[in-house]
Amino acid sequence: MNKHVTTRPAAGSPWDRPRPSSDFLAKHSDEDIRDWQGLTERVQRIAVANDFSKAEVTRRTGMKEGTFSQWYSGTYTGRLEPYNRMVANWLDAFEDGAATSAKIPASPDYITTRIGTEIFETLQWAQIASDMVMITIGAGMGKTAACRRYAATRPHVYHATVSPHTKTVHGMLVELAAELDVRELNPAKLTRAIGAKLQRIGGGTLLIVDEAQNLVDDAINQLRHFMDIYGCGIALVGNEEVYSRFGKANGGPSYAQLKRRIGKRLKLSKPYPEDVKAYVAAWDITAEDCVRFLLGIGHKGGALGQIEKTVKLAYMLAMGLGEELQLKHLQAAWRNRDVEDMQ
């Protein structure tokens, strides 16, 4: 029986089309090989489109690494059908999920809001005056999106995000080095290398440190050092806890020493009503009952972020029922998310 599988490998690609071995072709039935050929083509297409490594596809299919390698390359001589089925199940589930995701509206592009404008003005002051500013905004109100937008549209602006794992001075410096593309392996020289990157004759450099509530006081004091020595602007962005990092109760640097360096502070715990309206309008939802419900969500903790998560889940529920988005879907999505009661 002469079995032939045509392959056209893309030169240099880790997902070259496989060339099945003669043992592979002799071992398996025509039907199994046809299935295998179709599956490898689908795997290649999805892997390349999503930049998946072979290790990632192996993990997703649930195969063992050696088995997947042999299966894809066309050298596996055990029973082929079970592994064809495993790959087919993963591909079907992945494509179904991708199709569903494609139908769910994407989050609105950046929209100009009142709080966004105030964040821009505060960041601009820090950059122009080489000053330290503090931005404490409630969760889900767009502070990170505004900071990213500012950094993307202004020269000499760096936006780094710290976490509980990078809250120490060294952890923060490593994070800053990655953001500023500073390559210094000697920890003793890292501070100076970062400072040199932030320093510009005439000023005009801004370092935005997001989620700054995670930082210990010594790390914030290090940021003050960058401003004082290298003449850059510093923006501490996060929730209300950022301000508490300055207290003596934490055993950190003097409250007065740090507080006097803050040239401008922007604080807001609840979103502006006009910002919530603008965000709901950006989703192109016009039914009055739906708009009213989403406006109520937008004034709860999490604000605009709560609207986004609820709308996306509501669309998924509506699609599952083959219906257009309605108030009942939004209400069901809110209940399913189990955040809090809507009064």
Would you give an account of this structure?
With 343 residues, this protein is α/β, with parallel strands linked by helices. The protein has 3 domains: 22-103, 434 Repressor (Amino-terminal Domain) (Orthogonal Bundle), CATH 1.10.260; 114-268, P-loop containing nucleotide triphosphate hydrolases (Rossmann fold); 273-337. Helix content is 56%, strand content 8%. The chain has helices at 22-27, 30-50, 54-61, 65-73, 81-103, 114-129, 143-153, 169-180, 187-198, 217-230, 241-244, 255-259, 273-282, 288-298, 303-321, 327-337, and strands at residues 132-137, 157-161, 206-210, 233-238, 262-268. The chain has a 5-stranded parallel sheet, with helices on both faces. Helix 8 (169-180) crosses helix 9 (187-198). The chain starts with 21 loop residues before the first helix and ends in a 6-residue tail after the last helix.
